Amino acid sequence: MKYLLLILTIAVFTSIVLGFVLDVDYTEKLIGFGVAGLFFIVFPLFSYIHWKDKKVEDYMLTKENLDKMRENQKRKK
User: Fold this and answer.
1) How far apart are alpha carbons 50 and 63 in whole angstroms?
2) Which residues have C-beta within 8 Å of that of residue 46, sequence separation ≥ 6?
3) What is the spatial distance between Cα 74 and Cα 20, in angstroms, rounded to a whole number?
4) What's the pLDDT tens digit per position in 12-48?
5) How far apart are CA 21 and CA 50, in angstroms?
6) For a tag site, which of 4, 18, 30, 46 has the least CB within 10 Å?
């Protein structure tokens, strides 16, 4: 899955760069497909790969997590 993400990222950035460098009729399409692929395919895949085994509750600002943060601040002082 990580290799697929790497290949897609390289393909998307190549499409964007070629859209700026080449002087053909479909340069706008190359840039557009590159940007769309980046935001609709690469970013969600990246987020899924790096967040699939984590608990979302650990990163939310709930009362319990705020209390833990305050305790850690007091321990450091």
Assistant:
1) 26
2) 5
3) 53
4) 999 999 999 999 999 999 999 999 999 999 999 999 9
5) 33
6) 4
Helix axes 2-21, 43-51, angle to 10 degrees: 160
Cα separation, 22 vs 52, whole angstroms: 39
| Residue 15, number of CB atoms within 10 A of its CB | 19
Angle between helices 2-21 and 27-37 (to 10 degrees): 150
- The answer, as to whether pTM is greater than 0.85, is no
4 to 15, 18, 51, 52: CA distances (angstroms): 16, 21, 17, 16
